[in-house]
């Protein structure tokens, strides 16, 4: 994706009072401010554990469920949408999730500037915005430059797990990730809880496809 072309549009959707409260009061405790400097994840979580990054966590229900089910892994969720970030902060607080933190910023910049090369055990990309109109394809997140960046940030053996319910985007994901020399197909490694956007796609009769690519050792 060319610099300046974003994979999202910030819509003025309503932030509920409790999401707003969470953004104001909980961000200092569970959020990470964006800054163009590498993160010290050991200091952040107070331990050395596998680290998984989620891109576009939406309302965060799946993110919180995965973090709860995997207490030995640390998770960083990245999302630009305020209500979604507020909602996830609330979940972290209510469920006492010490292994999950949130960054409210463009995931491409976070990946490029805050994540050390080879630091990630996994990247989750569940139902990225499909941008179905041809003139918007350039906004799709999964493009060759993204594949190269994601591969660089994964540790050898780390898994990029992507899912979509848009047939045409599924083809693009398969082709683009399949063409990245540092990645190889990993078969059906690991199930995941259903996401909000996935359930909407299923209601529309869409077929869901999951992709697992492993960083070559
Ligand atoms: C279609 S929604 C899917 C949300 C969630 N993963 C789910 O399946 O329910 C895509 C999400 O990605 C977020 N997003 C898109 N591009 C992003 C970017 N570059 N950085 C961070 N978040 C992004 C959007 O704000 C949106 O919430």
Structure write-up:
With 217 residues, the chain is α/β, with parallel strands linked by helices. It has one domain (17-215): Vaccinia Virus protein VP39 (Rossmann fold, 3-Layer(aba) Sandwich), CATH 3.40.50. It is 36% helix and 19% strand. The protein has 9 helices and 7 strands, in the order H-H-H-E-H-E-H-E-H-E-H-E-H-E-H-E. It has helices at 17-25, 27-30, 41-45, 61-69, 82-95, 107-114, 144-153, 167-178, 196-203, and strands at 51-55, 74-78, 100-103, 120-126, 154-164, 183-185, 209-215. The chain has a 7-stranded mixed β-sheet with strand order 3-2-1-4-5-7-6, sandwiched between helices. Helix 5 links the parallel strand 2 and strand 3 (100-103). Helix 1 (17-25) crosses helix 5 (82-95) and helix 4 (61-69) packs parallel to helix 5 (82-95). The protein is globular and about 45 Å long. S-adenosylmethionine is lined by residues 7-8, 55-58, 78-81, 84, 106-108, 126-129, 141, 195-198. Residues 7-8, 55-58, 78-81, 84, 106-108, 126-129, 141, 195-198 line the site of S-adenosylmethionine.
Attribute tags:
alpha/beta; binds S-adenosylmethionine
Helicity range of the residues?
Answer: 25-40%
Rounded average pLDDT? 95
CATH superfamily: Vaccinia Virus protein VP39
* Spatial strand arrangement across the major sheet: 3-2-1-4-5-7-6
Number of domains: 1
Provide the structure class: alpha/beta
How far is the first residue's CA from the last residue's CA?
26 Å
Cα Rg: 16 Å
Order of helices and strands: HHHEHEHEHEHEHEHE
Note the overall shape. globular
Strand fraction equals 15-25%
> How many separate helices?
9
Q: Which CATH class applies here?
A: Alpha Beta
List low-pLDDT spans: none
Summarize the biggest pleated sheet: 7 strands, mixed
Q: Which CATH-level-2 architecture?
A: 3-Layer(aba) Sandwich
């Amino acid at each position: 994706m060319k610099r300046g072309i974003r994979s999202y549009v910030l819509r003025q959707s309503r932030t509920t009072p409790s999401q707003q409260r969470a953004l104001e009061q909980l961000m200092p405790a569970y959020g990470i401010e964006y800054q163009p400097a590498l993160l010290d994840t050991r200091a952040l979580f107070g331990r050395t554990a596998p680290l998984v990054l989620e891109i576009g966590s939406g309302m965060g229900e799946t993110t919180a469920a995965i973090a709860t089910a995997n207490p030995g892994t640390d998770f960083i969720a990245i999302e630009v949408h305020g209500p979604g970030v507020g909602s996830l902060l609330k979940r972290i607080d209510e469920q006492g999730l010490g292994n999950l933190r949130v960054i409210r910023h463009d995931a491409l910049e976070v990946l490029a500037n805050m994540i050390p090369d080879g630091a990630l055990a996994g990247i989750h990309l569940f139902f990225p915005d499909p941008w179905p109109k041809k003139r918007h394809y350039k906004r799709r997140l999964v493009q060759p430059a993204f594949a190269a960046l994601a591969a660089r940030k994964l540790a050898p053996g780390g898994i990029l797990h992507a899912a979509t319910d848009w047939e045409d985007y599924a083809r693009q994901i398969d082709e683009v990730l399949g063409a990245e020399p540092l990645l190889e197909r990993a078969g059906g490694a690991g199930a995941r809880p259903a996401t909000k956007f996935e359930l909407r796609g299923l209601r529309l009769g869409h077929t869901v496809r999951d992709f697992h690519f492993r960083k070559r050792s």
